[in-house]
Amino acid sequence: MKAIFYLLAYVTGWSWSGLQNNQVVLPGGQTCQNTATSRHCWGEYSIETNYYTTAPSTGHTVEVWLSVQEGMCSQDGYRRPCMTFNGTMPGPTITANWGDELVVHVTNNLQSNGTSVHWHGIRQQHNVQNDGVPGVTQCPIAPGDTFTYRFQATQYGTSWYHSHFSLQYAEGLFGPLVIHGPATADYDEDLGTLFLQDWSHTTSYRDWTAKAKYGITKPQQNLLINGTNTFDCPARENNEPIDSHCVGGGRKFEAVFEAGKRYRLRLINVAVDSQFQFSIDGHNLTVIANDFVPLHPYETASVLINVAQRYDVIVEANAVPGDYWLRAGWVKACIGVANDHPDDSTGIIRYNADSQATPMSISRVKPPVACLDEPFDQLVPYVPLDVTNITGTTVEDINVLLTGASFFQWTINSSSFMLDWEHPTLMRISNGENSFPPQFNVVNVDKQSLNPKTNEWAVLVIENKAVALLGSIAHPIHLHGHDFWLLAQSPTTWDGTTAGWQTVNPPRRDTAVLPAFGHLVVAFQLDNPGAWLVHCHIAWHAGQGLALQFVENQGDIAFSTVERQQFDETCHKWDAWWATAPFPQEDSGI
């Protein structure tokens, strides 16, 4: 009953066969504009630009204020306590252009919880102190305190921001992050983000108690699309609701298409533990990006999207005008516990804004029989980057076990991941410490060459042999601070060799599925000094310790004076509040 993570020392070499110029030059020497017929353009840059080494610097700053607060939510007509950014769930959309600077002031207005905000998929190049992980890159933000995050939009595409403190994102603390840039296919209109979410009618902390003790979570009560859905409230004979929290008023998500137009949808899975199969009856999807990576477009009837993943798709309004179901089908193969309403995660696409008809369309997609990502050979990055010259021979085994203690835990090398909010990893590093508590699950990765231009890589092989109470479970694995190159992903056991690894322009992303009973092989370049979390994005599993952290190029991690001042002030305020906090730390901290 174990999952084995092998860290294979280093890989050198990065070859890029894409175009070397960063401009799309028109007759007369003018650069082209991003329009409905030229989405590949972005001023002096284009979809051909290698965004890992080159990005615009616009000189423009996007400044945002977020208030983390408690409230009551009735997203589907069932009223329950929740947490929100600025009083809404999802939180406000943060929008920027490729190359902008983002400055986000986060104020914690919770009564009895710390918090933090993670910018999912943002690499934070040489900027680890803004990654937003309590116990790793900062102390939690104490109630009443404000923390300011600053980072450059060196990537473009679709993502989300969310609390990384305990189970808070499951309570509603998440929002969309859109960075505009070029695209690999043309479209007429950007419809924005579409959140896919499971939803419980009790708080995640109550659900956590059952999961932590017994390893089994109770079913989620509903599935939401962009934070909304309907729920059938049971009633007595006099039509009064049996449950006073069932107040009604839920609604289906709706969007209106104009015949002949092409629409961009930005799909984001923010579930606690659910994979979705997204489709629109009567329409095909053209996939143009996964996570923050532009893809060679491919057409499909549906897209499989696991926890924390994103897909950008284009939908052409070419069906017979009418009303169609938009579906976020719950994938049973990914979790052993059913959802109470697995077939009700639907929205509506209308061709007539005045229509109120219930769609009569029928789905033509078949649900998957296994919990997997989109087909490996479909996810072809548009900017081709290879991993070459794999020379590492050092192997480190990291075992994940399920223990039968009073609390159900995942452990790595017999150590369940547990952070110290008062003494985060970056504090220890900045104080000159070179060793860490075993429960921090630190793996050191450092460049071996003294030549800064030499490309070196870490390769992580993960075998999933962990068997939970309901059988082996797939895990969506997320790496902070990097995209990773997917060298292999298979529902079978690794044979111990590198045979079959795809090193020529393999899929790239920041979150990928480790299949049940299978293995996942990922590579990332050692070019971003920091302490970077690697974890399962199923909220229960992260809380139960299914995580480790890479301390990368430790000698090159540095703070500016201003950054260190904010870091220290945040920790001082947290220490003062935590000394009289009304609760102990009951999970891993992330």
Automatic annotation (TrEMBL):
| Matches recorded under InterPro entries | Cu-oxidase-like_N, Cu-oxidase_2nd, Cu-oxidase_C, Cu-oxidase_fam, Cu_oxidase_CS, Cu_oxidase_Cu_BS, Cupredoxin
Q: Where is the Plastocyanin-like domain?
A: 68-182, 193-352, 420-555
What's in the keyword line of the UniProt record? Copper, Glycoprotein, Metal-binding, Oxidoreductase, Repeat, Signal
Report the GO molecular function annotations. copper ion binding; oxidoreductase activity
Gene3D superfamilies reported for this sequence = Cupredoxins - blue copper proteins
First and last residue of the signal peptide: 1-17
Which family does the similarity line name? Belongs to the multicopper oxidase family.
Q: What is this protein called?
A: Laccase
* Organism, as annotated: Penicilliopsis zonata CBS 506.65
What lineage is on file?
A: Eukaryota, Fungi, Dikarya, Ascomycota, Pezizomycotina
